[in-house]
């Protein structure tokens, strides 16, 4: 089968690989119908995620048709078209039982903080991903969710990650009616978080990025104010000034490690990590939120960042929340939002290309060429 293949930092290609096989009675094999490139894939692409092995197939955003199931799979059958959440979750551990599917205690045998994620290095379980014609889906009784009759596959594929992550960013922020919400990062995740902030009762939504085309897109898609931080002396002062010097009620970080401009280095083996430098968007978030406010982090960071202004967190009485999105928990209500038209996921898609052109897809998304927001690959 054709599959994306990682060769090293900034080197990916499409090659023929062996078909995935059922390895456990609860596995299913999915024929991939749509798959996306995510901002999270860029951390891998740039070589910033420890233990990303050459030969790995990335891709944690995919939908497809079940073509084979293991002997213990009862919840889905051959022929079903399914949304596959990016988290691999056992469904039965302490965390899954609370709906924390992104924090599954069983799926990641590498025992890192995070549960397993498709195609996201051996730090996140070492499973191959869905940027391929076929993918092995473990715990198939848990994650795969039937695509409702009539739902566009382009909407469905964004329910694997972008929509739940944007929604959970707004949910974790604990937005109260009338709140001013600031979102750092106008990538697909930030744009979706800004859009979802209104669902929680925001009174004002501001998004901040450095790419004018993304800001323009966000203005139209998320009905928000949008500003370029390169045109400000200091984004923290800008936000304070526009909120009567109070600060924003809540701030969402949808940037993550990109802004840090640094690499996570492996010191010993792959378990101990050092991230030198500072996380710009997170600093701005902590310093521009009001006293007693909430900072909601969905941007992905390495395990440590030693320059967080933690004293300001203490002195301002802040609440900081972060997590990988718990896709499975959110799917029922998000499917409803798509069906009744309150959310329009496929409106984020700017590019569609064959899987064979995956290398071009990464190059374009990474360099933000051709006004790219979200790229869908079609196997
Ligand atoms: P993306 O790379 O398309 O978007 C990031 C945006 O941040 C870019 O537009 C960039 O110009 C902007 N940016 C960079 N530095 C900035 C700064 N200092 N202030 C404001 N904006 C800045 O990525 P994406 O697909 O939108 O994903 C965003 C983040 O969310 C990534 O870190 C990704 O790994 C993470 N993510 C997390 C989850 C989760 O479950 N928590 C899921 C998906 C993605
Ligand atoms: Zn993703």
From TrEMBL:
Residues 25-144 form the Alcohol dehydrogenase-like N-terminal domain. Its cofactor is Zn(2+). SUPFAM superfamilies: GroES-like (SSF50129), NAD(P)-binding Rossmann-fold domains (SSF51735). Gene3D superfamilies: Medium-chain alcohol dehydrogenases, catalytic domain, NAD(P)-binding Rossmann-like Domain. Transmembrane segments: none annotated. Signal peptide: none annotated. Residues 188-264 form the Alcohol dehydrogenase-like C-terminal domain. Keywords: Metal-binding, Oxidoreductase, Zinc. It comes from the Bacteria. PANTHER family: DEHYDROGENASE, ZINC-CONTAINING, PUTATIVE (AFU_ORTHOLOGUE AFUA_2G02810)-RELATED, ZINC-TYPE ALCOHOL DEHYDROGENASE-LIKE. Belongs to the zinc-containing alcohol dehydrogenase family. This is Glutathione-dependent formaldehyde dehydrogenase. It comes from Hymenobacter nitidus.
